[in-house]
Fold each of these.
Amino acid sequence: MGKAGRVLKAVMEKYGISQGKLAAVMNIGSSNVYRWANEVRDPTSETVIAIIKALEAINPDAAAEFRSRYVDDSEA
């Protein structure tokens, strides 16, 4: 699957953000976050933006790292 899930999982682990916490801030079910983080399903581009906004609300550093790593071509 895609890069977004790999990066999301790594960032969530590094900053101690649970799937449930991210899901709550995004107002979605935690199963959606599970699917992205475990590369079962790729988030849409609109969802990636929502993930960044939610991460910013939880931890701005996590959001910045997610954005940076997601955009960085060397992570592909």
Amino acid sequence: MLRNEGSIDRILRVVFGLALLSLIFVGPKTMWGLVGLIPLLTGLAGYCPLYQVLGFSSCPMKK
């Protein structure tokens, strides 16, 4: 699978995903925290399908 996310983008996605997932256990304890699975999984995989559709990539070009 192609990588279209840079390192900083991946780190931010994982942190944001974990923060959203924490809403299930602490705070308002809402199931909306499951939305955090999307940035978490895309950050771990390094690939975002929406980036591909939009033709965007935050991954540095290989020379």
Amino acid sequence: MASVNKVILIGNLGRDPELRFTRDGQGVANFTLATNERWRDKDGQNQERTEWHRIVVWGKQAENCAQYLQKGRSCYIEGRIQTREWEDKEGNKRQTTEIVAQNVTFLGGRGEGGGGGGRPGAEKQDAPPPEPGPDGSEIPF
């Protein structure tokens, strides 16, 4: 039986996209996206939870994201979940799960931005090393 790895998200950027290029000149952008869930608990109190997603975008779409998206801007993302492992500088094994975006649609006006939602600093974590490009080349720092 076939399997499916498909993610659809609509949320707000937690930070401006960071654009890098592979040695072959292919762009890759990284940013975080916040999605919010709201509900009423059994006592009738409003509750909210923010989930942070690491987003990776490749190619010309990455360059467009870096040019037109900014912290707080809303966007629609279709992609797949990917988990990677690496060793940090101390030799500890680390792991991250990210969304590799295959389609990014900018929502809202160009002037929309700021705010970002969620807890301040919630998107700040020990960043994983850059992902090797589709051709296996690494992205320089």
Amino acid sequence: MLMPKKVKYRKLQRGGKVKGKATRGAKIIFGSFGLKTLSGGLISSRQIEAARRAMTRYVQRGGKIWIRIFPDKPMTKKGDETPMGKGKGSVDHFVAKVQAGKILFEMDGVAEGIAKKAMKLASYKLGVKTKFIKK
């Protein structure tokens, strides 16, 4: 799974809703087809990996896939049945903060129909609304 090798601060504050529209990373650069978010939110490293696997299984060694997001925000979790207080929990997993309009995945080297179906399978694994786009 994706996670940073090193972080400046071990634990970060969660922050509120992911607002606004993406200006950076909002255009297809590497491939011909892409999966674009319609809503903002947090995508975990497990979700990214599950989506990547779904796409690669469907295209069966055909084409190239680019992952345009990286989970660099640590999320903490307290142990089960831990009483209130006693400080912040330990780092449990990493998430990527995505704004609406951000390109999550790109694909090239396959037919449009295959790319569309593969991206649809990937979108089921993610926690944000997405749409298929082409260059």
